[in-house]
Every structure is written in C-alpha cells, then in structure tokens.
Specification:
GO terms for molecular function: acetyltransferase activity; O-acyltransferase activity. The protein is α/β, with parallel strands linked by helices. The chain is 18% helix and 25% strand. The chain has one domain: UDP N-Acetylglucosamine Acyltransferase, domain 1, CATH 2.160.10. A hairpin with a 4-residue loop joins β17 and β18.
Length: 191
C-alpha cells in the first residue's frame, strides 16, 4: 500500500501484482455479482478495495468500474461516477465533494518515462504523479485526466477533453490537449 509519486517503480513487482489481482477479484464482484440495488454491499466492497469515502455522504460508482489498487483513491461527499470509468491509481487520486464523472472518464496517475532507454519496451520502470479534482467539478464523458493534474473547484471538463495541465477554478476546458474555453462566474445565480 504505497504511492509512487515521482519515483520509478516496477509494475511487475510481486507485491503490486498481488495487490492488483486482489483488486481485480473485488472489481469482478462489484461489477458483476452484487445486485444493483444492494447499496450496503456495494459500499462494503468499495471499502475492501481501499477507496476512502465519507459513509454519511457515500459515493455512487456505477458499474462497471475499473481501477488498479483502490487504496490511493479518496472521494468526497456525494461523489457520482458513471459507468466505464478507469482509475490508474499508483499515486493518490483525490476527488472533492459533489464531483460528477460522466461515462468513460479515465484518470491516469501512472505513466511511462519519456526516454526510450529507460522505458525499454514498457517492461521496465514506470512513474506516477497524483491527480486532484477539487469540489463541484463536472468531468464530461470520455475525458482523460493525465498524471500530476489538479482541476480547480467548480470547473467543467468537456466531453472528450485530454487534460494535460492544471485547470484553474471556475474554468471550462475542452479539446486535445485541453485548453480554456471560457471562465465561469462563481457568483452568478444558478440557471
């Protein structure tokens, strides 16, 4: 149960392999074996995966859910995650209150070294950097959030965006790579 922020690590390390295997078994249970209406059991399995959340304001993860470890994921109050979301959580993925993830969102805290000699075919060391999503963010369908990114509060990530850099609060970004589309007024009355 370790975060590899900024460190080279071996994804094939026996301990990491064992942890991913354990998580895969729990994902299979969560995604395919638990009755959809059985919230207590679903929350229990999320805890077994190591996901941290507030039991008084529990999250909702629409199955299927895909993650590497689970124990590096923290979600805030009233978090909603639609189906087919992927968390590569070798490093912390920290999500604030009232965040919504649309279908197919991908959160990648893992990546490969840039130098080919270090990467050496992908069977060598990997790297990781944390992802932070602050309160009241909406991430559109099939958006990709890359390692080391912080998304500021109340922002919107457009569907299909690839977020490679930090996003300021109250900002709408979209595209590949994501760029600012507009700024939001946090004091504007709800429409």
């Amino acid at each position: 149960m370790k975060s590899y922020t900024g460190e080279l690590y071996w994804a094939g390390d026996p301990q990491l392999l064992a942890e991913r295997r354990s998580t895969r078994k729990l994902m299979r249970r969560y995604n395919h074996e638990i009755d959809y209406e059985d919230e207590p059991t679903k929350l229990s399995v999320l805890k077994e995966m190591g996901i941290t959340f507030d039991a008084q304001h529990p999250p909702f993860f629409e199955p299927p859910l895909f993650l590497d470890y689970g124990y590096n994921i923290t979600v805030g109050k009233e978090f909603y995650c639609n189906f087919n979301t992927t968390f590569l959580d070798i490093c912390p993925i920290t999500i604030g209150d009232r965040v919504m993830l649309a279908p197919g969102v991908q959160l990648y805290a893992a990546f490969h070294p840039q130098h080919a000699a270090t990467r050496n075919g992908g069977l060598k060391p990997e790297l990781g950097a944390p992802i932070t999503i602050e309160d009241d963010v909406w991430v559109g369908g099939s958006a990709v959030i890359l390692p080391g990114v912080t998304i500021g509060a109340r922002s919107i990530i457009a569907a299909g965006a690839v977020v490679t850099k930090n996003v300021e609060p109250d900002t709408v970004v979209g595209g590949n790579p994501a760029r600012v589309i507009k700024r939001l007024d946090p004091n504007q009355a709800a429409a």
